[in-house]
Amino acid sequence: KKKRTEAGAPGNPEYAIGSVDESGHVTLNPDAEGIVDDAYINEEKQRQMETMRRRRALYTPIRPPIDPTDRIVIVVDDGIATGSTMLAALHAIRQKKPKKLIVAIGVAPQESIQRLEKVADEVTCLQTPGWFMAVGQFFEEFPQVEDEEVVEILRGNA
Asked: Which residues share a beta bridge with 77?
């Protein structure tokens, strides 16, 4: 799986203005237009790509990526808000020519689901509430996953 990271808005890092995949392809949230300029996007892109390089160097020796070519690929997320990160992941995987590209999500707003349906072969979402502020509002606990936890999971120790 290609790692990708979100770029947050200035002063509000939780609001995803877009995301970037390991190839450098940027997917901007349509609502981000006018919030940031090209210089900010390029600076954030470089910062996020450095994070991905660091994580790839940390994760790959433990468990190398699986080639998605000619496979059915299911990309899973607990929830999405804008959909930018998922769109970047789908773009990265689509470049590898999977047989079928499926998205499975716990919760998302309907407009984000509609954006994903244009890119994925199939989208399944358990809940599409009418009032959506953030993914975390739908979970009792919603902690960040730290690199150390990912390493333990990849090693099979979690």
From this structure: 105
